[in-house]
Design brief:
Helix content is 39%, strand content 28%. It is built from three helices and four strands. Strands 1-2 form a two-stranded antiparallel sheet. A two-stranded antiparallel sheet has the order 3-4. The longest helix has 22 residues, at 79-100.
Length: 101
């Protein structure tokens, strides 16, 4: 399981530890990932994702998983999140077609 956020694409970064004697050693800064289940209003079910704490705040700020995925770039999303985005888009098109008819 990779240490990468499924919604934002945020991953590990590299830097240095600096001792009191100013010795430098390489280290990794890992993202704060959490396993969460987010509810999709369009699909009517929960979606399990591994996302960063910052992404969780962004999802809440944008008004839920459906709204977040609608604005998200396809390049940043994981394959599973991209699949969910396409399912939501398909349901949205079907609902719009039903209203027009």
């Amino acid at each position: 399981m990779s240490r990468r956020c499924e919604l934002t694409g945020k991953g590990p970064m590299v830097g240095n530890n600096s001792s009191h004697a100013n010795n430098k050693t390489k280290r990794r800064y890992l993202p704060n990932l959490n396993d969460v289940t987010l509810q999709s209003e369009a699909l009517g079910r929960g979606i399990k994702l591994r996302i960063s704490a910052a992404a969780l705040r962004s999802v809440d700020h944008r008004g839920g998983l459906d709204a977040f995925l609608a604005k998200a770039k396809d390049v940043e999303l994981s394959p599973s999140a991209l699949k969910v985005k396409k399912e939501i888009a398909k349901i949205g098109k079907n609902a719009a077609a039903a209203l027009d008819a």
